[in-house]
Design goal:
The chain is mainly alpha-helical. The chain has one domain (3-63). The protein contains 4 helices and no strands.
């Protein structure tokens, strides 16, 4: 990256540029997991077993139509 490119970057862009690919992947996974947790909380689901059961119930309900 040229000096001009670095000069034109905002502080946020500079910080982002310094994040390694592994760190970015970790941050992306963290975001996905947090979103999953929020969705489960909204649905009243607290375990993976409950999630699987709800999915099975929805399949049965839709197949019965």
């Amino acid at each position: 990256m040229s000096k001009k490119d670095l000069k034109d970057m905002s502080p946020k862009e500079e910080a982002f540029d310094e994040i390694s690919e592994e760190e970015f992947d970790d941050l992306e996974l963290l975001e996905r997991l947090e979103s999953l947790r929020e969705d489960m909380e909204e649905l009243g689901i607290s375990t993976l077993a409950e999630l699987i059961l709800r999915i099975e119930e929805m399949h049965k309900r839709l197949d019965a139509r």
